[in-house]
Design goal:
Elements: E1 2-6, E2 17-23, E3 27-28, H1 30-38, H2 42-48, E4 59-63, E5 72-77, H3 86-102, E6 107-110, H4 122-137, E7 156-160, H5 166-187, H6 195-208, E8 212-217, H7 219-225, H8 228-234, E9 242-249, E10 257-261, E11 263-267, H9 287-301, E12 307-317, E13 328-331, E14 337-340, H10 347-358, E15 365-370, H11 375-380, E16 385-389, H12 392-405, E17 409-411, E18 429-430, H13 438-447, E19 455-459, E20 465-466, E21 472-473, H14 478-490
Parallel strand pairs: 1-7, 2-5, 2-6, 6-7, 10-12, 10-15, 11-12, 14-18, 15-19, 16-17
Antiparallel strand pairs: 2-3, 4-5, 8-9, 9-12, 13-14, 16-19, 20-21
Helix pairs in contact: 3-4, 4-5, 5-9, 8-10, 9-14, 10-13, 12-14
Bound molecules: ligand BES, manganese (II) ion and zinc ion.
């Protein structure tokens, strides 16, 4: 799928379809009224018949309108003119993409970026169109046997606007492709997407981009580094753990942003076994890792002038004769001893060693991304990812990037008062903090290993995938992370 820019007037466009916005009560957008004049009032006559009212998400596909070069015009309802919310706009462009994808249209032009959406910049509307379109077009097929190619796949959307949308279309293309990569890795079953498979994918990114260098550490090398916490999780699995590092170099010897992605390719809970209800969804426990892959590929595609290191600790968490047992004490790479009171709190056990390891890159900031706690789903649902940080300017930058990208985060406190919940009688810390504030105490655990740098933690357990009938990965928080990096570059 291609996202392009055009400044050719809609009436003379050579394209399979022109999409234009209309508003509640049949009001026309600028481009819709241009086409209407060009066709001697044809469009307003059709609207007057009442087949489309202009509510957000309504569509009407018109054919062979006289006076217009394009064979089709798609009217897209966007809601009440002057007060179109972000979610109205997303419904409208999603509906547009759904019609374009279901018809024989291969190349379309969208004029929807011209309308006002809560004073969002043009760039936002273009990017959001690419993101929503890609979500409509994405179809998981890798392990299905009966896959028919589409007769008329949608191949391109060009954005018409009087201003140049080239840069916005390029970033939309890269971000949405990064999300598709994240989705695909996340949706793959645990028996295919193993730590070894993720490591191979990282090597592929290295092959694809001259700017990316991948290194993989195996268990023996992690042993040498003293990663006793990470390896204790992996000991209960027959799949060997991997520590994947993808180094994107776009800015000489600037200090890098380090992104650490939780890569549990399956989390059964270990000896503290999870209930079997929806346990299949624990293949998604590597969505943090997937978002790091998606982000690295997007920024490499865009050649962003920044240095980013992606670190992915990857393992399975299974019950086994050699698995961690409640009460076991392990020693992390930092030397901190950990009493494992619940083997299902394994994410923090692999992340703590990856965070300690991250210090060697002399990071400007470290951000970990993890499907860390069920508690964050209770707190924030599937709208916002949880944010906790040891540095407020970094937290503010992530909140800002969340608002800018509409891939939003909400901050929870990381006050010292919570730290005592991790006290242990038999080790330096316990790996769980009791039933109160589960997402905060998980972050408190990680904070013990991030004292030497500015660090933020994103808990994406509620946002990275959807369950139920429409089960599937979302590609979040790739838009947030790319936006954070773009803003970071702009502020340098
Ligand atoms: N991967 C899970 C978190 C999770 C659970 C994400 C459900 C999405 C849906 C994590 O490893 C985990 O099991 N966390 C435990 C921690 C608890 C034992 C302190 C949890 O949230 O129940
Ligand atoms: Mn777990
Ligand atoms: Zn987990």
């Amino acid at each position: 799928m291609q996202y392009l820019a055009t400044t050719t007037a809609p009436a003379t466009l050579e394209t399979d379809c022109i999409a234009v916005a209309i508003f509640e009560n049949g009001e026309l957008s600028l481009s819709a009224s241009t086409l209407n004049e060009q066709s001697d009032g044809n469009i307003s006559r059709i609207i007057t018949r009442g087949d489309i009212a202009g509510k957000a998400g309504q569509t009407l596909l018109l054919q062979d309108i006289t006076g217009i070069t394009s064979p089709r015009i798609l009217l897209v309802g966007c809601g009440t003119k002057g007060s179109i919310s972000e979610s109205n706009y997303i419904s409208a462009i999603t509906a547009m993409a759904t019609v374009l994808n279901a018809s024989a249209i291969r190349h379309a032009t969208s004029c929807l970026a011209e309308i006002d959406v809560q004073s969002r910049p043009l760039e936002w509307k273009v990017r959001q169109t690419a993101i929503s379109t890609e979500a409509v077009l994405y179809k998981y097929t890798q392990t299905k046997s009966d896959v028919k190619p589409q007769d008329f796949p949608l191949e391109s959307i060009s954005f018409f606007d009087e201003s140049d949308t080239t840069q916005a279309a390029l970033s939309g293309q890269a971000i949405s492709a990064g999300m598709t990569l994240a989705r695909e890795l996340s949706n793959l079953p645990g028996n295919i997407c193993t730590p070894t498979y993720l490591a191979q994918q990282a090597v592929e990114l290295d092959d694809l981009f001259a700017s990316v260098t991948t290194t993989i550490l195996d268990e023996a090398e992690m042993e040498e580094l003293g990663m006793g916490s990470l390896l204790s999780v992996s000991r209960g699995s027959r799949e060997p753990a991997k520590l994947i590092t993808m180094n994107y170099q776009g800015a000489g010897d600037d200090r890098p942003v380090v992104l650490v992605g939780k890569g549990l390719t399956f989390d059964a809970g270990g000896i503290s076994l999870k209930p079997s209800q929806a346990m299949d969804e624990m293949k998604y426990d590597m969505c943090g890792a997937a978002s790091v892959f998606g982000t690295i590929s997007a920024i490499a595609e865009l050649n962003l002038p920044i240095n980013v290191v992606g670190v992915v600790p990857s393992s399975e968490n299974l019950p086994d004769g050699d698995a961690n047992k409640p009460g076991d004490v392990v020693t992390s790479m930092a030397g901190t001893t950990i009493e494992i009171l619940n083997t299902d709190a394994e994410g923090r056990l692999i992340l703590c060693d990856a965070l300690t390891y991250s210090a060697r890159f002399e990071p400007e900031v470290v951000i970990d991304i993890a499907t860390l706690t069920g508690a964050i789903i209770v707190a924030l649902g599937s709208q916002a990812s949880g944010l906790m940080a040891n540095n407020q300017p970094l937290a503010d930058a992530l909140l800002q990037a969340g608002n800018d990208s509409y891939d939003r985060v909400w901050q929870l406190p990381l006050w010292d008062d919570y730290q005592q919940q991790l006290d242990s009688n038999f080790a330096d810390i316990a790996n769980i903090g009791g039933k109160e504030a589960g997402s905060v105490t998980a972050a408190c655990f990680l904070s013990r290993f991030t004292k030497d740098f500015n660090w933020a933690h994103l808990d994406i357990a509620g946002t990275a995938w959807r369950g139920g009938k429409a089960k599937g990965a979302t590609g979040r928080p790739v838009p947030l992370l790319v936006q954070f990096l773009l803003n970071h570059i702009a502020s340098k």
